[in-house]
Write the structure tokens for this entry.
Amino acid sequence: MAVRRSWKFLLRPTSKQAAALTACLDDHRQLYNAALEHRRTAYRKAGVTIRYGDQSADLKHIRADDPDGQARWSFSSQQATLRRLDKAFAAFFTRVREGRTPGFPRFKGRGWFDTVEWPRDGDGCRWDSQPHHPTATYVRLQGTGHVQVHQHRRVVGTVKTLSVKREGKRWFVVLSCDDVPAESLPATGAVAGIDMGVASLVTTSDGTFVVNPRHLAATAERLADAQRDLARKKRRSTRRRTAVARIAALHAKVRRQRLDGAHKAALALVRDYDKIVHEDLRITNMTRSASGTVDAPGRNIAAKSGLNRSILDAGWGVFLTILSYKAESAGREVIAVNPANTSRACSRCGHCAKENRVTQAEFRCTACDHQAHADVNAAINILRAGLALRQAAEAA
């Protein structure tokens, strides 16, 4: 079985290449904003709907009129930027149809457009452009040249798309590859339900706890100092830009730490269990602000805000996404179940009541007096629900 995987590598551009990459991002951002304004104006003034095909056809005229600007970059990468806008509009109309908050596509400021995509390797870009170089790997980008890559692991499969991403002062290349052979692991015969939490990131049904490192909380004081320092800086000054870069670097470090921890925790689960059952969590809904208005605020707003911050710091969504694709590659099965009442029901007798959950960590059934760690009890319920769902699917 073959799967699709992505690889992310650090770029080491020269100063001239870094300037060219910055110019590439700026020009693609301007193209995105101009295309968005084109759509808005056409519909507002004439009631005409502009689509991707119309704007893609205009690219050759835009490039001809700007030989030292837009014409420097790959035609296919500019088409990818226009497709990005088209996807934003498609998502907007989907939200409108479903009755959700629409969120009309916005113009991209300088700090909100950090990725350019090349849809096909060999069309405006070339991975491993100097294959016979004895010590280094390079990627060739139209308008930039051969940029050195810090390739820390082997790329497997066929490179299909290539993206360049800016994170603070660093540049990365992201490869999306098809036909990557799945590395199936030997069967263990073990199954597990996992309960996501804040005190422990993951609790398994057999009583294993994965510590939540709370990376954001560990960096909170440094971030607060950096925010206070930023507030004292004059707008549009060099010192303010330096302060903004410092904050971005701190957040980037937290993000990398969280991602690294999620990879390690997911890999450990995939190695130990053949089937992994987790709750189908709606994290966006769970981390919404406390209900209420300015005149009639909701209750426990500060507590809800702190809980939201802790959930986001734990990175449940990142962890579950990584777990899903690692399991697919290893030939494991991941099952998502409805989380309703998994923390209130007794794993021994099935009695469900709010009073069963004595504290955050203690569970005591009011019917059969069964006692257990609350997260372990929930993980057992999750596992049972997942296995029942699996059996029902097989029977059907």
